[in-house]
Give the backbone structure.
Amino acid sequence: MDEISSLAKSLMVLDDKLAFCMKCGFCQAFCPVFDTTGKEGDVTRGKIALVENLAHLIIQDPEAVNEKLSRCLLCGGCQFSCPSGVPTLEIFMEARAIVTAYLGLSPVKKAIFRKLLPNPRVVDTLLRAGSPFQKLLLKDEQNPQKTACAPLLKSLFGDRHMPLLADKPLRSKVGKVDRPAVTIRGGLRVAFFPGCMGDKIYTDVSEACLKVFEHHGVGVFLSDNFACCGIPALVSGDREGVEKMIEHNLGILSRTHFDYIVTPCSSCTMTIKEYWPEMSRNLPASVQETAKKFGAKAIDINAFLVDVLGVHPEGPAKGGLKVTYHESCHLKKSLGVSKQPRELINMNKNCELVEMVEPDRCCGCGGSFTLTHYDISQQIGQKKRDSIVATGADVVATGCPACMMQLSDMLARNGDRARVRHTIELYADTL
C-alpha cells in the first residue's frame, strides 16, 4: 500500500510540472535524437504526451514506456531552449524513477548501483584484478585518440573504439591529498572531485587540475575513497542507489573544510549542484541540509579558474596548433559555462581557436544512452565528427570526460588524426 501511495504522490508531482508545456513543438529543432530518427515519440513533446498518460500506460505496457523514455540523451537542449521554461530534465528523470519503481531494477543494475558504485574500495579491487587482462581482450589501435577495440567482446561492445583504463587509478597514483591553501595568494581551498572517469581512465585530466591548483596556491582536499557522483543511477531511475552514493560522499566531505567543490566533469558538477539536494529529500533533514550547502559550492574547473581565480588571456592565441572546442551539453545548457573554456584555450599561446559549426550540438554520448542505443548515438556522433574535421583542427577540446570518450570513438572510427583533450590540459601545458 505504501508503494502505491508513493507512486501516486510521484505522479501528482509530475502533473504540476507538465502543466507548463504548451505542445508548441519548438523543442524539435533542439533534439538530436529527433533530428536523427524523425519520430514524434523521440522528441520532447512526444515524451511529455507519454508522461501525461503515464499512470494508464505504465499498467498497460510498462516495458514499452521504459523503452520510449530511454530514447533520450538528457542533454537538456529542449529545456535550455524552451520558451515556456518546462523543466524537462526533471520530468524525464522523475518519470524514469517512477517506471523503475514499478518494474523493479534488474539484478545487474541493482548490484552496480547499490553495491559497487557506493563502495569505491570494492570497485578498485575488482578493477585492479581485471586491469591486467584488458590488454588480452582489447586490441590497441595505436591511433592519436589512444583507443582500442574489443573483437572478442563484440557481442557486448560492438565495434566501439574505447579508451583504455589507466595503468593506475588516480587514487593509487596520488593517494589522499590534504594540502592547505597558500594564504598570501588568496587562501582558497577546494575539495577536488575527479569523478569516476577522472579517477580510472582520464587520470591525465585530474593530474592537470592538481598541477593548476598548486600553481595558483589553491589548497586541495582529495579523498582516496570518493564514490561515483550518482548520475548513472540517477538516469536509470534508481533513487536508492543515488541516495547511497550521496550519503557516502557527503560523509567524506563533511569531515573537512573547503570553499568550493571543483570537478573537471560537467556531469558530476551538475549532479552535485542540482541533483544532490533534490535526491536527498527522502533522507534525514541533516543530510538534506548538507547536500544543499555543498551543492551551492559545486563549480566546474573552467568556471573556477576564470570566474573565481581571474585567469584571462590577453587576447586570442595565434599559435601553430589548431584547436576547436566542443560544448558539453551539461556544461553549457545546465551550468551556463561557455566562455570560460575558450578563455583557457586562449591562454595557451601555442594554440589557435577555430570554431566549428554548432559547437553546442550534442555529441551523442548521453552516458548510458550510448550503451543502449549505440546506432542512434553513432549517427549523432558522426555529425559532430564531420563538424570537427571540417575545421582542420589538430585538437578538439571539451570539458567533459564522457564527451571525450564519444569524440575519440567517432574520430578513431574514421581514422582521423585530431586528438581529444580536456581544456584544463591545454591550460596546464602552459604552466
